[in-house]
Amino acid sequence: MNPTAHIKLEGNPLDIAELTAAIRSTKNGGECVFIGTVRDNHQGKVVTHLEFEAYEPMAIRELTRIADLASAQFKLAEVLIHHRIGTVYPGEAAIVIVVTAPHRNQLFDACKMIIDQLKETVPIWKKEVYTDGASWVQAHP
Question: CATH number of the domain at 4-137, out of 3.40.50.2000, 3.30.43.10, 3.90.1170.40, 3.30.365.10?
Fold first, then answer.
């Protein structure tokens, strides 16, 4: 199976309905969506917003590698990974992952694998801004 990957780093808000519709197909029996949203708190501090930075050429290359790996491992039809860069506010989506396949069984595992790999290897950095300061946050504390 040679899947299609839709990879993008985006400075504008992510439209979840538009992204899921972009890869929906009557050829597939299922799709799974993971939406990572910004929360308004972290370790007892009030979060006003996040600031994401990326080394874009390498991030796109690594996201494509992860999409290809997930596609092969889970026999996916399509993979969409869109990640915000810039300022993202509480309640907004920071990342949307959508995977499709003819059968549903592998879809949840595929989303989990993609987000776990992304946090480990993709050069995207997150700065949390609080009401009383800011800090860069590691993907895996």
Answer: 3.90.1170.40
